[in-house]
UniProtKB/TrEMBL annotation:
InterPro entries: ATPase_NBD (IPR043129), GppA/Ppx_hydrolase (IPR050273), Ppx_GppA_N (IPR003695). Residues 37-284 form the Ppx/GppA phosphatase N-terminal domain. CDD domains: ASKHA_NBD_PPX_GppA. One of its GO terms (molecular function) is pyrophosphatase activity. This is Exopolyphosphatase / guanosine-5'-triphosphate,3'-diphosphate pyrophosphatase. Pfam families: Ppx-GppA. It comes from Sediminibacterium ginsengisoli.
């Protein structure tokens, strides 16, 4: 079965196309055929002005047209498409979604932060890890951060906070928002087994690549702090030149590290696993299971 997922985020839009096969036990295997990312950067418009500009609306439409052509070229059977924080906040998102549907046939659903957290958890990474620990998923986006806490073989909580990389760059996160997140984490994780973090999102994936760690090995919190100091001490241009970052990665990676470091400190987590998954992976798994006959 060939499936696809589209995620229109605050910083970029992603298209994931997979082939799903099953092994002898009937367990689905998701084989990635293509992952396309376009840096639309909608949050820079929306979080400041409350709407998507004409230029950005044109970029979104062209991106969705390109994705539609790829879906046809790959002969994708089923597609799920969602939008997150920037489209949630934009007062003209409904008009744009209507235009996309008319011109491409794609139906985009704007999902809540709570559902976003649930979909990231669809990857069920923690369920295959050491049961002697608790696990906190941290997904950092341009507009929001989703936290999902898994302990004692059950989902304890999932929450979304309007603290994201673009909002931080735009100085739209005040102390009360940080305090709310800190108090929430400390209160909800108190009394559970030692917490290990699971990081998702493009920025933590990039940090993991920089670290040269082997897949499956965690990053220590101290290493994230070292990278934060190192990257925040040089200019945007130097980050692009020294680390070979694209501009749309070079500016958001520093506030992303700030969020991961703070969340891990408040959860008393000393290390973070980076399985290189994101919302599109959760979306495609959600789509697959929704297509299965109900027993």
């Amino acid at each position: 079965m060939r499936l696809a997922a589209i995620d229109i985020g605050s910083n970029a839009a992603r298209l994931l196309i997979v082939d799903v096969t099953t092994d002898a036990a009937g367990t689905p295997m998701f084989n990635k055929l293509n992952l396309v990312r376009v840096p639309l950067r909608l949050g820079f418009d929306v979080f400041e002005k409350g709407e998507i500009s004409k230029e950005k609306r044109g970029m979104v439409l062209q991106t969705m047209k390109a994705y539609s052509h790829l879906l046809n070229a790959y002969q994708v059977e089923h597609t799920i498409a969602c939008a997150t924080s920037a489209m949630r906040d934009a007062r003209n998102s409904a008009d744009l979604i209507r235009k996309i549907r008319l011109e491409t046939g794609l139906s985009i659903e704007i999902i809540s932060g709570d559902l976003e957290a649930s979909l990231i958890y669809e990857n069920h990474v923690a369920e295959h890890m050491d049961p002697l620990h608790s696990y906190l998923y941290i997904d950092v986006g341009g507009g929001s951060t989703e936290l999902t806490f898994f302990a004692d073989d059950q989902l304890v909580f999932k929450d979304s906070f309007n603290i994201g990389t673009i909002r931080l760059l735009k100085q739209m996160v005040d102390d009360s928002m940080w305090d709310n997140m800190k108090n929430h984490i400390k209160q909800k994780t108190k009394g559970y087994k030692k917490i290990v973090a699971i990081g998702t999102g493009g920025n933590i994936n990039k940090v993991f690549s920089l670290s040269k760690k082997k897949d499956g090995k965690p990053l220590p919190a101290e290493l994230l702090k070292d990278y934060y100091k190192e990257l925040s001490s040089v200019s945007l241009e130097e980050r692009m030149r020294i680390y070979k970052f694209r501009e749309d990665r070079a500016d958001v990676i520093v506030p992303a590290l700030q969020i991961y470091i703070n969340v891990m400190r408040w959860a008393d987590a000393d290390e973070i696993y980076v399985p290189k998954i994101g919302l599109v992976d959760g979306l495609v798994q959600h789509l697959y299971y929704s297509l299965q006959p109900q027993s």
